[in-house]
Specification:
It is found in: Cytoplasm. The protein is of the alpha/beta class. The protein folds into two domains: about 150 residues, SPOUT methyltransferase, trefoil knot domain (Alpha/beta knot, 3-Layer(aba) Sandwich), CATH 3.40.1280; about 70 residues, tRNA(m1g37)methyltransferase, domain 2 (Trp Operon Repressor, Chain A), CATH 1.10.1270.20. About 35% of the residues lie in helices and about 15% in strands. The chain has eight helices and nine strands.
Length: about 240
């Protein structure tokens, strides 16, 4: 899978792309990442990529010419998405990462300053946000999306079965987990996990997932209940 990242700060990605899970996936050629700097497509001696907005206002906007040129400089694979990282986009979620993993190519445009010239939207197929807040740059959500998609690609995670048991995969948060020692500073591991009774453990974990989601994420809990009702109705 190919990722092309349009970024004013390619060095931002140096360490993340060379270490940990992403580093291993790239070294195994599960995915490739190409960094493109819009400054390389400017004609003036100062390599200017921003300008004042028409009509006045605070801050600067990214100009359309360098971004268009940067995006058009990368190869076009048959099945691709061009994503603008912007607070106005759809909030990232696990289903989105799963969907994006089906593409051959993802091009990401990292916003800066007060945003981008609105004509850039003619380039993109999807607008994506990390959440309802403002960051200093689009590289942070771009790295999040990159990590979220690549870790789901076959061969990235050692035990792919573990991906099916994670938070959000079933619409619920993960259950509590423990390791040795069984007792630490008076805090005990739940007895059921030491019992060896796999059926009881599975039931306990499922119950914990439901309780955690209900208490910590009422929005997810509501969506999960609605999904359960829908599936029950479809089965008759």
């Amino acid at each position: 899978m190919r990722f092309d990242i349009i970024t004013l700060f390619p060095d931002f990605f140096t360490s993340p792309l060379s270490s940990g899970l992403l580093g291993r996936a790239l070294s195994k050629e599960i995915a490739t990442v190409n960094l493109v700097n819009p400054r390389d497509f400017t004609a003036d001696k100062h390599h200017r990529v921003d300008d004042e907005p028409y009509g006045g206002g605070v801050g600067m906007l990214l100009k359309p010419e360098p971004i268009f040129a940067a995006v058009e400089s990368v190869p076009v694979l048959p099945n691709r998405e061009v994503i603008l990282l912007t607070p106005q986009g759809q909030t990232m979620h696990q289903k989105m990462f799963q969907d994006l993993g089906n593409y051959e190519q993802i091009v990401m445009v990292c916003g800066h300053y007060e945003g981008v010239d609105d004509r850039v939207l003619n380039l993109v197929t999807r607008e994506v946000s990390l959440g309802d807040f403002v960051l200093t740059c689009g590289e942070i959500p771009a790295l999040t999306l990159l990590n979220g998609v690549i870790r789901l690609l076959p061969g990235t995670v050692g035990k792919e079965e573990s991906l099916k048991l994670e938070s959000f995969e079933a619409g619920l948060l993960d259950y509590p987990q423990y390791t040795r020692p069984a007792e630490f500073r008076g805090m005990q591991v739940p007895e059921v996990l030491l019992s060896g009774n796999h059926q009881a453990i599975a039931q306990w974990r499922k119950r914990q997932q439901q309780e955690r989601t209900r208490d910590r994420r009422p929005d997810l809990w509501k969506a999960w209940l609605e999904q359960q009702q829908s599936e029950k109705f479809e089965k008759g």
